[in-house]
């Protein structure tokens, strides 16, 4: 004889978030903004990416090497010169978006209010 599990209701009533749950994303956003700003200001050498043309810019003899050199030079425009700058900017954008989202969420209020 197989036992049957009781089924749960489709939607459970949601409890209102506690003050800690409402403030935690604001603290995360502040941390993201702070770390991103420090990374942009400090510019540590750890994230520095060397110039790709260190091996020289003279044309190569082999056809596939010339194609690789042209591709390298074209792709270099999209590559960051300092990886920590890119990470810092991403943290600033993400922190700002999170902070604005949470602040607008607080302004809109709770359901039924």
Question: What does this 3D model show about the protein?
Answer:
By secondary structure, this protein is mainly alpha-helical. It has a domain at 20-47 and 60-108. The chain has helices spanning 19-42, 63-76, 83-108. The model has no long low-confidence stretch (mean pLDDT 80).
Would you spell out the secondary-structure blueprint of this structure?
Blueprint: H1 19-42, H2 63-76, H3 83-108
Helix pairs in contact: 1-3
Short description:
This protein is mainly α. It has three helices and no strands.
Report the order of strands and helices: HHH
**Count of DSSP E strands?**
0
So what's the overall shape? elongated
Number of helices: 3
Over the alpha carbons, how many angstroms does the gyration radius reach?
26 Å
Main sheet characteristics:
none
**Helix fraction?**
55-70%
Give short descriptive properties of this protein.
elongated; mainly alpha; 113 residues; single chain
């Amino acid at each position: 004889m197989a036992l049957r599990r009781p089924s749960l209701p489709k939607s459970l009533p949601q409890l209102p978030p506690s003050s800690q749950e409402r403030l935690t994303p604001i603290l995360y956003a502040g941390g993201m903004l702070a770390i991103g700003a420090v990374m942009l200001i400090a510019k540590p050498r750890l994230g520095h990416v060397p110039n790709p043309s260190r091996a020289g810019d003279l044309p190569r003899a082999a056809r596939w090497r010339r194609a690789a050199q042209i591709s390298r030079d074209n792709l270099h425009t999209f590559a960051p010169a300092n990886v920590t700058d890119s990470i810092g900017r991403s943290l600033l954008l993400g922190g700002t978006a999170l902070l604005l989202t949470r602040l607008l969420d607080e302004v809109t209020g709770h359901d039924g209010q």
